[in-house]
């Protein structure tokens, strides 16, 4: 699929602020599942922008606005071509669940087995994960069982939580948004030694004009494979991957701080639309 993504964040401050330092993670990966064909970042007030890759190899754009300003607009325009290559046939890739404890010795997995800012391992979570995976001896099948459990256990309720909601609170209330579904699945996976990371991105679907979040789990000899607990399925070509980390704290699309009054208004606009494939030129 060819997708066009517009992501616009506007801040309005009750009085002018200054010395604003910001970083954004809005440029998608290019990998075997997707290609970032173009990316444009616009900042108002206009300012120089620097780009680097963070510890998790996400693209980060950083900028500073030192003069006083009463508003800030951050807008990205992105074109991405995606494939369905992430789909995994579990019958063709058996991985015994018994190998999971050994994955902690792998450098690429260690961080994704520990507690993090919004995810924690505890005995109650471990017990819940064992019950949800009862009868499964394959790692991928167990991860899919946990994915189905989260989708059935939580109720998707817009505005029921916020960006700083911890996994334990969403699990106790049994409501949340995609960020909470992802955090709960990550916690369940890690509790039984399945490495799991947080993915921020977008989903192209009618009526869902917002950022999205899902999970990737690690399978030996195969690599990271994605699961979407909000929808109870494997992501496909409708998904665009932006950034990965231990949980949301590592990958917010926009993060910053400034000097000045704390009262502000924030508006976020996201649109994801499919574009037609270019017409093939016929020979003459």
Description:
- The protein has five helices and 13 strands.
- The mean pLDDT is 92.
- It is globular, with a radius of gyration of 20 Å.
- The chain is α+β, with helices and mostly antiparallel strands.
- α4 crosses α5 (178-191).
- The chain folds into two domains: 2-83 and 252-275, Immunoglobulin-like (Sandwich), CATH 2.60.40; 90-250, Roll (C8orf32 fold).
- The strands form three sheets. Strands 1, 2, 3, 4, 5, 12 and 13 form a seven-stranded antiparallel beta sheet that branches.
- It has helices at 107-110, 123-132, 139-153, 167-173, 178-191, and strands spanning 2-24, 34-44, 50-53, 59-65, 69-82, 155-156, 175-176, 196-203, 211-219, 223-227, 239-245, 254-259, 264-275.
The helix count comes to 5
Beta fraction: 35-45%
- Measured between the Cα atoms of the first and last residue, the distance is 28 Å
Which structural class do the helices and strands define?
alpha+beta
Structural domain count: 2
What gyration radius follows from the Cα positions, in whole Å?
20 Å
Mean pLDDT: 92
- In percent, how helical is the residue content? 10-25%
- CATH fold naming of the largest domain: C8orf32 fold
**Tertiary shape:** globular
The unreliable regions are none
Second-tier CATH architecture of the largest domain? Roll
Q: SSE string, helix = H, strand = E?
A: EEEEEHHHEHEHEEEEEE
User: How many strand units?
Assistant: 13
Q: Give the C-level CATH assignment of the largest domain.
A: Alpha Beta
Supply the key terms.
alpha+beta; C8orf32 fold; 284 residues; four-stranded antiparallel beta sheet; Immunoglobulin-like; seven-stranded antiparallel beta sheet
């Amino acid at each position: 699929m060819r997708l066009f993504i517009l992501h616009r964040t506007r801040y309005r401050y009750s009085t002018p602020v200054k010395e604003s330092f910001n970083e954004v993670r809005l440029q998608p990966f290019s990998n075997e599942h997707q290609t970032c064909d173009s990316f444009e970042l616009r900042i108002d007030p206009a300012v120089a922008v620097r780009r680097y890759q963070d510890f998790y190899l996400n693209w980060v754009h950083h900028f500073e606005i030192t003069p006083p300003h009463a508003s800030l607009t951050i807008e990205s325009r992105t074109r991405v071509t995606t494939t369905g290559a992430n789909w995994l046939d579990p019958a063709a890739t058996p991985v015994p669940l018994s190998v999971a404890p050994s994955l902690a010795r792998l450098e690429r997995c260690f961080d994704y087995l520990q507690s993090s800012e919004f995810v924690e391992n505890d005995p109650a979570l471990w017990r819940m994960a064992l019950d949800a995976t009862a009868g499964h001896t394959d790692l991928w099948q167990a991860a899919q069982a946990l994915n189905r459990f989260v989708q059935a256990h939580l109720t998707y309720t817009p505005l029921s939580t916020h960006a700083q909601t911890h996994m334990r609170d969403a699990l106790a209330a049994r409501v949340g948004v995609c960020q909470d579904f992802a955090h709960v699945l990550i916690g369940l996976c890690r509790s039984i030694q399945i490495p799991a990371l947080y993915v921020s991105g977008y989903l192209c679907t009618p009526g869902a004009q917002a950022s999205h979040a899902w999970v990737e789990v690690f399978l030996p000899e195969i690599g990271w494979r994605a699961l979407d607990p909000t929808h109870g399925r494997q992501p496909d070509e409708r998904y665009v991957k932006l950034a990965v980390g231990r949980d949301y704290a590592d990958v917010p699309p926009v993060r910053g701080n400034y000097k000045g009054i704390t009262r502000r208004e924030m508006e976020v606009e996201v649109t994801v639309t499919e574009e037609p494939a270019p017409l093939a030129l016929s020979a003459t």
